[in-house]
Write a structure and sequence with these properties.
about 140 residues, alpha+beta, 5 strands, globular
Length: about 140
C-alpha cells in the first residue's frame, strides 16, 4: 500500500479544493509515505519534548473520508514558524532524531528532501501569510 502525501501552501478557504496541477510549483511538495503522526513526531522533536496525544489536537483536521483513506490536515502555525526559522544544524539534528523513531525507522538521508521541502514551504507560508497543509491518501 502506497501513501500519497502532498504538502502545500494555501489559505484555509482554498485548501479544500486542492489540485496540485493548478498551484505554483513553489507551493507544493509531493512527498509520499507520511501521515499526520509523522509530523506530530517531528513537531515534538523540534520542541524538545516527548510525543503525547496533546500534539494531535494541534493539527487541524479539515477533511477525512469515512473510510479513513484520505485526509486534509493543517499544520500548526508554530510548527511552520519553527521550520522556517530553524538553523541548518537544528534541522539536521531533528532529521536524525526523526529518522530514528519507531514510526519512521529509516536512514536520515531519506528525510533530506522531506525536511528541505517542509522548510521551503514553511518559509513561503510565513512570507505570504498562508498555512501549510497535508493532503494524504492511501
Amino acid at each position: 500500500m502506497s501513501i500519497l502525501a502532498d504538502f502545500f501552501v494555501s489559505t484555509q478557504e482554498a485548501a479544500a479544493s486542492y489540485d496540485p496541477d493548478s498551484r505554483p510549483v513553489s507551493d507544493v511538495a509531493r512527498l509520499g509515505g507520511l501521515i499526520p503522526i509523522h509530523l506530530e513526531l517531528l513537531w515534538a522533536i523540534l520542541q524538545g519534548r516527548e510525543w503525547d496525544t496533546d500534539l494531535m489536537a494541534e493539527f487541524e483536521d479539515l477533511e477525512e473520508s469515512e473510510s479513513g483513506t484520505s485526509w486534509l490536515v493543517r499544520l500548526p502555525d508554530d510548527l511552520v514558524a519553527r521550520l522556517a526559522q530553524a538553523s541548518a544544524n537544528e534541522l539536521i539534528d531533528a532529521r536524525f532524531e526523526w529518522a530514528a523513531t519507531e514510526e519512521l525507522s529509516c536512514d536520515p538521508s531519506e528525510l533530506i528532501e522531506v525536511v528541505e521541502s517542509l522548510r521551503r514551504l514553511s518559509e513561503n507560508a510565513m512570507a505570504t501569510n498562508r498555512s501549510v497543509f497535508l493532503k494524504g491518501s492511501l
